[in-house]
Amino acid sequence: MKERKQGSDLERVCFDVLLDLFDYTHRCNFGTPRNLLIIGGKGYHISQDSIPALFSLHLSIRIAFQLCSASTRIAFQLCSASTRLVSMDVVSPILDGARAKVIDKLIDKVSTYVQDQYYWKANLQEELQNLKRLLPRIQAVVGYAEDKLTMYESHNPALIKWLWQLRDDIDEAEEVLDELEYRELEKKSDGDKNVETFRALVTPTSGVGTGQMQQEQESLTLSNQSRITSSLPGLSFKGREEEKGKIIQYLLGEESEIQTSQNVHCLPLVVMGGMGKTALAQQVFDHFENEKKEHFDIKIWVCDSLPDLNASNLMKKILEYLTGLSESEPLELIPVKLKEKLHSKRFLLVLDDAWDDKNHIEWEKLCIPLLHGQKGSWILLTTRLESVAKMVSKVIKGGTMKPMTLQGLPKDECRSLLYEHAFVDQDPNEFPLLKKIGEEIVEKLHGVPLLAKSIGGALNNKLEADHWTSISRSELWKMPQDLNNCEFIPALTLSYKMLSPRLKQCFSYCSIFPQDYKFNKQKLMCMRIAAGLMYSDGLKEGSNEDIANYCFDMLCNKSFFDVHTNNWSAFRKGIAPYDLEVIYYTMHDMLNGLSRHVSRYECCRIVHDTPSYICDYNAIRHISISITSIDAQLGDLANMVCKFKNLRTLRIEQYYGDSQKLDDFIRDACKSPRRIRVLIIQPYKCLKSISDFVKLRFLEITALPLSVSISKFYFLQVLTGYRGILAKDTSKLRNLRHLYEVPENALFSMAEVGKLTCLQELCFTVGTKPGYRIDELMNMDNLRQLSIAKLSNVHSLEETNNVNLVSKSYLTSLELNWYKPDLDEASSNLGHDQQKVLAALHPPPTIRKLIIREYKGGRPASWMNTKSLSRLESLELYNCTNLEELPPLWKLSCLKFIKLSDMKAIRSLGCRSSDPMDRQFSVLEELEFWDLPLLEEWNGADDYQWFPRLKRFEIGNCTKLKKIPDLPLSIENLCMKKLGLEVLPRFYKCSNGSTTFGGFQQLMSLESLEMDDYSEIVDIGSIGEEDGNFLPPALKKLKLKILNKHEDLASYLRGLTSLTKLSLSCLQGMTSLPLTNELEHLTTLRSLYICDCEDLTSPGGLYIIKSLEQLHMYNCPKFLTAEVESQQLLKEKTRSASDKAASILPSSLEFLRFSTSKISQESLGCCLQGLTSLKRLDISNCNHLVSLPNIEYLHNLTALQTLWISDCEELCKLESLTALISLIQLSIFNCPKLIATTLSTVQNPAATTEQSATKIKKGTLLSLEEIQIDNIFYLPILPIPEKLKTLYIKKEITCFPSEIEEWLSQCRESLKILILQQMTHLQSLPTILESFSSLKVLGINSAPELKSLPRMHASLELLVINGCSAKLEKRCQKNIGLDWPNIKHIPDIYITAVKEDKAKVR
User: Where in the numbering of this chain does the R13L1/DRL21-like LRR repeat region domain appear (predicted)?
Assistant: First the structure.
């Protein structure tokens, strides 16, 4: 026998443990059964199938520790040798703290076992202690080695290889631990309550354990190494205003060098990486999204950061951006569809970060459909390479401008940007020494904005001179800073170098996402946790989510992410527990390149079947795949992916092919699915192969087949994107922590939801049966967001008290809803005192958001009058109709948002005069009161300074309220409707201890104003009026209901040069809108709504508003009536009599609606003349309209795409429809006389003449794609739609007459979707359906009389029939039904009979 080497005692321990597990010797466990393991004084059953896993455990322990102990000296030598090298070969940490914790657990497992074996205890206790003392030394060596690899000071393949060998062995050991725990969880879920999880056996022991040193070091890393600020740096745009203005001039067509003969132009922005070209393009794009919204019909932003252009995929991206939907058309049809979308549209396309300068053919494919845009369309191209601009100029000949370039930022701007990120929350002038060092750094930045932000983030790490000096004097500044040909600037790694190992891991994980990806913080955090990149000691650092949140904020603080916010308030949006945040984050493409470089050993992204650089297949842990290839190539891709043996993350995106092919690909590609921790399948697919991934922690998928039980995923922590109702046995997922982007009723059918004790978000519906009652919430102490519905179903007050909400110390958001008890048990619930139930639902003091709905108690709960709500930021009360008083809200010092709605019993608001506080609601930003009919008093309205920070105030339907408090001059949105005010509020401003007041004209921040008529109280402009303007010039939205003084309308509009939306109603006695000189200043007005103006006849000078896009006329019956229109309009317009094309309305109109009007055919034609930009026309309740205007009026509507006609009782002719050459969608509803001719023809065939038949079928509609009608007999009088794709019919008929079938037959080669609604008497379908070669979807709803189905064409992909007879359902049964041969070829079939009919059949 060979002599044992050092460490053999440890091997013997491991081997003897293995022997004793199966009781091969009786020297320890005398008298114990052969299959019983004694650990911690408890017995654990060992099944025969556990033997392979336990052998793997032994081998993993043995190999891992042999490597650790034997390699200590070698590692030091490797590290020492490597310090002499300087290179670019940086990598992310290989052995992070999570790996060290696995080693801890393995040692602790052996230690725990030895404690119960008296034979070993005396002999090996000392050796185990030595081993525990050795582990920190091993970890120190590993840490030292990794520091050299992650600090740009080493290039040593041998060292990397050694670390990866150790990492592989540790991961293998962790797999064994996972496997054993999975089996124990499986037993436990099957009802064996005496079995404990294996993971519990390896919990670190108390005291100075093996992992404590590592944990304390990590804790120090969090608390001391990095400085984190209270706010994140926002997006900055500095020093590019001149270039921005120049580009906008180009896109507006104001530059003389533009060749007007071209429809589509391209402006290349050729700039080195990191210089801000994308930020500049984003500023221009936002300008046309917000300021000049009307200039382009379509605005598109796509990124193409790949070296090889793929025209088809890029066109697919453009279509998906336009529609917001996944594009599933075959690749050969994509250009055709894009051409149709852009035809006759003026568009702006930003093509960001293009690289391909060689593939002329692909560029031509991309540009061919783009060149069909309307005149004035632009492509803004950003690239680092001038050769790309030259390539595009060859394709868009004569339309490509000279490339625009950007220089570095001026030194002052660069310094400002650097300090903005380095001194977040601090005044730079307080650090004179750091400013001096900063000047040295500014010189080295060369005006590169990205470097300024990134280096600023690194400087912000420590505001200390030594730290700043080390960055200023780094050797990395001496390396070539190539901004064009490198994935990243070498100097960027200074920021990476300053990160802790844990932050480096988090950053490198982002490499699996594409450039320009919009990160959601919650999902990314959960993915990192699931992938094993986040770990907590459970003592000082909090939960894994707390650590992940901290790390993400640290990366944002150091400018690795840019945060993007929008104007929506999270409170106003009403974010439900399962919703994700609306804020998103992006990463600069060079930082994305840096992440790909440092993570190249561990992460891989496969795009167009081409992977990023792979160093070692066995080392790759995380991959993302964009499957853009055809199905036939999936096999080759699977052969590549299956080489990754140790995957932890698998992300699949952009696959729109066959579900079965994707299922087969996943099975072939993932040979070890039980190793996967994070699985993301973004395409909407139902995949059976998911069932093999039972050890997932994170799953994003939209649907699951019935054969897959999610209850077997015992480790699952996060489920996101699932669109269905979860199965009843989902309660077995004891580790489930988060549900995101799922329906609110996702857990509706699940009993015993209380077993999900780790869940942090929950929408719970109270039931009356055991397992569904409110006491299920009793042990769910990890909840952060909770919504409880149907509280009227509460079974007993005792169960409510058992919930013990006040002890749920993590809860921040709570919604309580008493709406609609179960009808069959409502009588037994009405006796419960809702006041007592509310009192029992006492939330913890951590609560920040509270919503109460349908509460019928008369008083608030006592806990609403205490400091329990001291942190409350948002309070919403809805339909609490019996509540007579409110809690003292003024005592809640953190409130930022209050909404009260439908509170029928509230009589007074405000605080008592005895309250000593000077300011009420000092931080409140948004306030809404709606439908408080008895409210008549606002206590203390004159005694205090209310709402000093209020931004939005909306109050309506409070008809008894006579006075409201003064409001701050800084208010931005104000709505006052249906109030009983005796005096309007004043507006105040506090400065230097004094208060000044002003009127509406002084509200310089006001953007939106909505008011009823208060002219009897006081003129709006009489308080503080100085320059004759009633309202402030910054106002963007104005809605006025003026009952008496309509002649003052022009005065109200005076000076409103920023107005975009205007709504006017009840202008009694006014016959004309203001004249031209009174409206010409409204150069930004886009939408005009006019309602209930019974005397209005003339549009006045409305035509002068060239920015107007939408005009809605409701209940203005005399508007443009024939008796007065001609004289008044011609008198107002000073134009030539020969100018017949001049329009009454603005030629910029895109949407025009007439509702409840007496407008005639001639008047409507006069309105439509000259509206060449009109895209949609809606006509409803116009009972004087006999026919559409003549062709001479309609032929100039070249942009009209949608025509909606409804409830026009006298309309009987549509002959001029053929003039609408761009019409895409036509909807006709409830026009009874329109079908008279056709109906009489069908009912009296003998009366049909050849002449009338010819007249009915005359003309075509070349562009029409969709028809929606409520009567099938409209069809014969419509022109023939040669490209009809969708037909929606809602009408009770028994069959399809021959005239209808003849009309339908003309669409058999184009029709794709046929929907038949409310067909209660339909007995048969058209026999010609078999000839519809393009039909893909057939939907029939409410057709109980339908007897059978004809043979369907092979093209049909989806058949849906709801509400049919049970007989028809039986005829369509798979393999046995009489109609099954006619439909068996259809991939997706859903046929559901009426429930009552089913019961009769039974």
Answer: 774-903
